[in-house]
Amino acid sequence: MITIKNTQFSSNQSLVAILNVMTKVKMLDICKKLDLYVSPNLKKEETARRVAQEILTNPCDVLHVLNKQELQIVDEFVKAGPNQYVIRKMRKMPYKLQKFGLVLTYEDMEKEQWHMLMPDSVREAFAPKYQPYLDIAEKGAKLPSKKQLRLLSFLSSLHDDA
Fold first, then answer.
1. 98: number of Cβ within 10 Å
2. What is the mean pLDDT of each run of 10 residues along the chain (162 residues)?
3. 19: helix, coil or strand?
4. 7/129 Cα distance (integer angstroms)
5. Phi, psi (deg, nearest 5) at residue 110
6. Where are the beta strands (DSSP E) in 56-160?
7. Helices 68-80 and 130-138: angle between axes, nearest 10 degrees
8. Which of 90, 116, 118, 147 could form a disulfide with 77 if both were Cys (CB 3.0 to 4.6 A apart)?
9. C-alpha distances in angstroms, 108 versus 87, 113, 117?
């Protein structure tokens, strides 16, 4: 989780800059959890750039691992637009959005709240893709696996070529 000292940050932060705050091991762990491939032989800065590129060009790889609560948070960010914080009660376990460095978090210890800010690039990448995942989660159905998503994407590309 990337914490910030105050809520004066704007959402125009680059995902690469946010990931660069993490260790290379943490970034590669995120890749493993999202089933993304980024070579472990790269320097830290290049690893951050590649991880950000993978996440932003393939937002479904992230969206399919989020639960209903987190998809609702994504929905709030998308509807709120730039520079808007989403506030949640602090939990023992951070959200995956926090673990993956996809939001910056200000911890208000007095009110026991997290004030989360999503970078514009992440919000814009998620915006056109998240709604079907949220709809499925709200119906209580199981989200498709990454393997199923790849198959659907492949079949869709065959249909588009015809």
1. 21
2. 87 92 93 89 94 92 91 96 94 94 94 95 94 89 73 76 59
3. helix
4. 28
5. -65, -45
6. 85-89, 104-108, 113-117
7. 140
8. 118
9. 10, 5, 14
